[in-house]
Design a protein that fits this description.
Bound molecules: uridine-5'-diphosphate, magnesium ion
Distance between the termini: 27 Å
Radius of gyration: 27 Å
Shape: elongated
Number of helices: 10
Helix content: 40-55%
Structural class: alpha/beta
Largest sheet: 7 strands, mixed
Oligomer: single chain
Strand order of the largest sheet: 3-2-1-4-6-5-7
Length: 316
């Protein structure tokens, strides 16, 4: 099979039939064999009955229904386990992405051998203040921290080689950064393709302003995990050792100066009267704690060895 089309959805009853018929005619016109996976992420409207009904008429349609709303990442994850196509295309269900882009994305993966082709909504039809501007900021931060050169990380419309979706683990809210997850897993042939975008014809956006807080924290996590996830001691151990050494040397110096005072016959002032005493103490305690954190991190990795963080491209 050429294509698996993965569509996560939450309360999108108005769009589903139009979405399917457009996908169907696009794929048939370009002679691509395909399957469609609708993942109902806890909808409370008529979305699921509509999907059930469509799947009875068309064998290409498959569905997964979650018992409650788990989030877009979990929806993608569930579908990625099932897909059989050579190329996987993800798209939103709200008709903001155009199904007509599918053959172009497919071609770029197949003929130019990319791991990921990410859509780029160059001309975007969302609210400027609440979406477009923050998103610009976001994308530039993501580019800097991850080294993946994309303009539009969070575009719902993307195409993947099958090995990519089978190797990555989309968890939490990480759907925003799938290209970064893939790059960390060794899939570095990532590019983007300008795609059309339109304002939401039905319903409302399912993500509120909390997206920015979560998105930012996830970005920091990703950056940290990709740098030090496999070797926590290199971070915690280094910082811990420097702090401890600093504290220890300060304490040593304090003790020494006290001894010198005593030898000169000066008694009476307490070590604890000197603010350096507390700084030295705190530094030593914090340094030890950080060192222990690094050590515990290393132990956890040891116990979790079968967690693959590399992807073998070829074996002879
Ligand atoms: N979605 C989902 N689960 C959620 C939130 C959203 O499956 O918890 C789906 C939603 O139905 C849509 C896609 O994810 O198909 C993108 O969501 P939306 O259009 O609301 O995001 P926006 O375009 O505003 O960024
Ligand atoms: Mg949308």
């Amino acid at each position: 099979m050429n294509l698996s089309i993965v569509i996560p959805l939450l309360n999108e009853e108005e769009s589903l039939e139009e979405l399917f018929s457009r996908i169907k005619s696009v794929c048939e016109n370009s002679q691509l064999s395909y399957e469609i996976w609708f993942i109902d992420d806890g909808s409370t409207d008529m979305s699921w009955p509509i999907i059930q009904n469509l799947s009875l008429q068309y064998p290409e349609i498959h569905g997964i229904k979650f018992s409650r709303n788990y989030g877009k990442s979990q929806a993608l994850h569930a579908a990625f386990e099932k897909v059989k196509g050579d190329v996987i295309i993800t798209m939103d269900a709200d008709l903001q992405d155009f199904p007509e882009e599918i053959p172009g994305l497919y071609d770029k993966i197949i003929s130019e051998n990319y791991d990921i082709v990410s859509g780029w909504k160059k001309k975007r039809f969302d609210n400027v203040m609440t979406k477009n501007l923050p998103s610009k900021l976001f994308n530039s931060a993501a580019r800097k921290l991850s080294g993946v050169e994309l303009h539009d990380f969070n575009c719902g419309l993307k195409a993947y080689k099958k090995q990519v979706v089978k190797s990555i683990d989309v968890y939490g809210d990480m759907h925003r950064y799938i290209p970064v997850l893939a790059a960390n897993a060794g899939f570095r042939k990532i590019t983007e393709k300008e795609v059309q975008h339109q304002a939401r014809p039905y319903g409302t956006s399912k993500f509120g302003t909390e997206r920015f807080v979560r998105g930012f924290l996830d970005l920091v996590t990703l950056w940290f995990v990709s740098r030090f996830g496999g070797r926590p001691m290199h971070f915690f151990g280094a910082v811990g050792t420097i702090m401890f050494a600093f504290g220890f040397l300060s304490a040593f110096w304090l003790g020494l100066s006290k001894l010198i005072d005593v030898s000169r016959g000066i008694y009476g002032h307490l070590l604890a009267n000197n603010p350096w005493f507390f700084i030295a103490l705190t530094m030593m305690i914090l340094g030890t704690l950080l060192f222990i954190a690094g050590f515990l991190g290393e132990m956890m990795i040891r116990n979790n060895r079968d967690h693959k963080n590399y992807y073998v491209e070829e074996t002879l």
